[in-house]
Each structure stands twice: as C-alpha cells, then as structure tokens.
Amino acid sequence: MLPQRPAVSQLRAMPNVSSAVRAHPLLRAVEGTVQIFTSQRRTFFTNVMVQAARVAEQGLPVLIVQFLKGGIGQGPDHPSQMGQNLSWIRCESLDCVSGPDVSDATRSAVQALWKHTQTVVNEGKYGLVVLDELSLAIDFGLIKENELLNLLKSRPAHVEIILTGPQMPDSIIAVADQVTEFRRNYVV
C-alpha cells in the first residue's frame, strides 16, 4: 500500500509558452452605450439597480453615483461596497437635495462628487457608471449640461453610462443609445 499524500494544487509555468495575454483575433472590445431611464414618478431605480448588479456579477466594476442624496457621509472618499464589483457613492452633504435652493456646502459637495465622477469615468476605471437623478441636478443648476455632454462624448469607448431622472434635456436624449420611459397606465 502506498502512503497517502495530501492533495496539493500547484501552478507551474508551461515550457515555451509566453506569459503575455493573447486575445482571440475575432474578439473586439464591446463599445459602451449611453442609456437613459426616465419617469415622472421616479419609481424605476430598482430596474437600474438590477442591471447594475447583473453587470457587477459578470465581473465588471460598477459605480453608482447619487448626486441628490446625502446625509450619511458616503462621499467619494467613503464609498459603500456592495459586493466585490459594485461601489456606491453619494453627495457628501448632510442634506438631500430637493430643489435649486441649496446651501453653499451642499452645492460644493455636489460639485466635488461631479468632479470625482468625471475623473473616474475618464480613467475608464468602471465598466458601468450609473448617474442617478442627473437630470434633476442639471435642472437645479448644480451640474452643467454641456459638461455632461462633453463627458459622454469623451469617455473611454468601453464605459457604459446610465443616466436617470424625470426631465432629461433634449440634448442628452439626442446622444443616448437607448431611452426607456417608465409609465403607469391605469385601467379604468
């Protein structure tokens, strides 16, 4: 009878095999899209979260940015991690934004979050970036429409962007690949 050996997994380099990653010649990078989810009732965030969770589960890094939600100290330096691939940040203000009249501190916090968002999108760090209630941030004068258009046009090709909000500007809708409007149809 042979002595029992403990089961051990070992990795070793294959002889004469380059360590460089080789991509199949038919594989190409998938170009990211710009999607818009809109509704007057603001009841579609669950649908967006399902899509974000699905993308994160597939291994792509996802960032959810909530510009108008504050109050919990969850700014760019303190993201919540929802699993390995899903980061979630909010405005680092003590208040939630519900209109154009905001304190200077809140306006500064939204601007800092916007600047951080532009940086990470341009770095291509995330495969999907959700910009929640961005249309309201534009409508309230907290983020400039032309800055968003520039970001969408100059982002790395692989970065997918989802924009949400009830009143998306026409110029943003014009550059979107997909616009989804959630409506409630009541049967009488």
From TrEMBL:
GO biological process, one term: cobalamin biosynthetic process
Enzyme class: transferase
Record SUPFAM superfamilies: P-loop containing nucleoside triphosphate hydrolases
Residues of the signal peptide: none
Pfam families listed in its UniProt record: CobA_CobO_BtuR
InterPro entries from the UniProt entry: CblAdoTrfase_CobA, P-loop_NTPase
Keywords: Transferase
EC number: 2.5.1.17
Any one Gene Ontology molecular-function term assigned to this protein's record: corrinoid adenosyltransferase activity
Protein name per its UniProtKB record: Cob(I)alamin adenosyltransferase
Provenance organism: Phormidesmis priestleyi Ana
